[in-house]
Amino acid sequence: MALISLEEAKGYLRVDTADEDAMIGILISSAGRLCADVARLTNEQWAAVDSNAEDASLTPIRETMRVAILYAVGYLFEHREEADHHDLTLTLRSLLFGIREGVV
Fold first, then answer.
1. How far apart are CA 7 and CA 12, in angstroms?
2. Burial zone of 92 (CB within 10 Å; 0-12 exposed, 13-18 middle, 19+ buried)
3. Is the pTM of this model over 0.85?
4. d(CA 86, CA 31)
């Protein structure tokens, strides 16, 4: 289970056709990894967050990561020609501050 499904991302992006499914799938994967890196999650921590394992302690982290991933997917989709990755990273740092600092 991924935190964000293709259908959910397409709904967020308001994409109705299957023409860009492959690209959106790549963006979901890239955004997830980027958010995990910005949040300073290890591979094991990211695997636990991105899994479908029932763990109430992960709920706040999953909710925050979902928002950050959707934001990153939307940003990368809309700015695919001229994306400012530094600006994106700064915004993700703000969104993921609680996870980065161990507050969540």
1. 9
2. buried
3. yes
4. 14
